[in-house]
Amino acid sequence: MSGALDVSSDLAPDGRNVTEVAVGVMVQPDGRYLLAQRPEGKPYEGYWEFPGGKLEPGESVEAALGRELHEELGIDVIACERWRTLEHDYPHAYVRLFFCKVREWSGTPLGREGQAIAWQTLPVEVGPLLPAAIPVLEWLAAEARQ
After folding, report:
1. For each successive 10 residues of the chain (146 residues), what is the average pLDDT?
2. 8 Å CB contact between 98 and 85
3. In which domain, by residue range, is 39 found?
4. Rounded to whole angstroms, what are the CA distances from 95 to 21, 30, 38, 75?
5. Does the residue 10 lie in any domain?
6. Quick one: which of 36, 61, 113, 127 is 20 to 30 A from 45 by CA?
């Protein structure tokens, strides 16, 4: 995916604002990927997801991802590439998720916001999964079969 945003609208089909989110699919050389549990007090608390967070005004996807992964996990992203984009309609927000594969980082990921984290392979051993994480697992499974 190129660096330019390929978004058609800042409004969801129902007229709500679209919340843009950078999401890191951190992949180890052995194929394991990192999932994080949503902390207490957030929508879908206790659900597992790929780590990331909202873009700030004027911020690129890559810059937001680097900032969020540093804040949440204490790591510094060295290499990432945009991989897939998905829109999902949650009751609390309509989100546009920019999934980036993160293959290189410095530091050891730690749940700096009190969240549990787990390196996983398919089938995942943690749950429940955030609904928008499920297609990502399907994409990873399809890639593993290639």
Report:
1. 48 88 96 94 94 96 98 97 96 95 97 96 96 96 90
2. yes
3. 18-145
4. 7, 30, 16, 25
5. no
6. 61
